[in-house]
Amino acid sequence: MQRLFTITHLTQEFDVTTRTLRFYEAQGLVTPQRRGRQRLYTPADRTRIKLILRGKRLGFSLAEIKEMIEMYGKAPGEAGQLRLLMTKIADRRAELLEKRRDIELTLAELDDVEEGCRSRMAELGFELAPGAAESET
């Protein structure tokens, strides 16, 4: 007999809300069995939830996650799924590296502007501690 998981069990295990799991169901990402009003999740549903949450942590959209998960059971199967995942990882990595460069440039520009402010304050006869902002009233 296959072990089934209740929505309560999975919300506690994965620290998500019941609303989240119902949303994943509405999106066709999981298909729990019904026993009256109770939702019962299979080990495959549990694995899908784990993959969905990992995908979300990595910054993938639900549409991307769904595409990758659905590939598993269809041709080209797991190999195609893994190729797609590797492509998505490379794309996500490139996106994050670009964001990192943008952040580093912005931080450098903030440093330059702050240094200009400090220099001007010094010219005006005011000294500020490094990293401290002073408000004039």
TrEMBL record:
PROSITE patterns: HTH_MERR_2. The keyword Transmembrane helix does not apply. Transmembrane segments: none annotated. The keyword DNA-binding applies. It comes from Roseibium hamelinense. Residues 4-71 form the HTH merR-type domain. The lineage of its organism: Bacteria, Pseudomonadati, Pseudomonadota, Alphaproteobacteria, Hyphomicrobiales. Keywords: DNA-binding. GO terms for molecular function: DNA binding; DNA-binding transcription factor activity. This is Transcriptional regulator, MerR family. InterPro entries: DNA-bd_dom_put_sf, MerR-type_HTH_dom, MerR_fam.
